[in-house]
User: Fold this.
Amino acid sequence: MPTFQIDDEDMAEALEALADLCTICEEQSVMHDAQGLPWCAEHTYRGDFINWGAAHNWPALELEPYGVAEGAWFWVNIAMIGEDDCVYMLLGAIEIETGEKIA
Ligand SMILES: [Zn+2]
Assistant:
């Protein structure tokens, strides 16, 4: 009777490769944000969004028609599941408000 064996090293490598795939589309990542989430070339703006939030202590933002509540949980959720429009608008609004170029 053959037994199925998983080599620990292979398993660790597989998990590491998985952890390196983009949070949104599972393409190979090109960056990890301040929270350690991987993002591909197309989705780095989401990592930039998280990095800006982390660098500014996850502030609450009121930017019509979107808003972010204070705290990492809200910022990370928007980065992970928010519509493109929403993340782009928030990034754009932050750039206008602060005069900083983010993404
Ligand atoms: Zn992606």
In short: The chain has a mean pLDDT of 91.
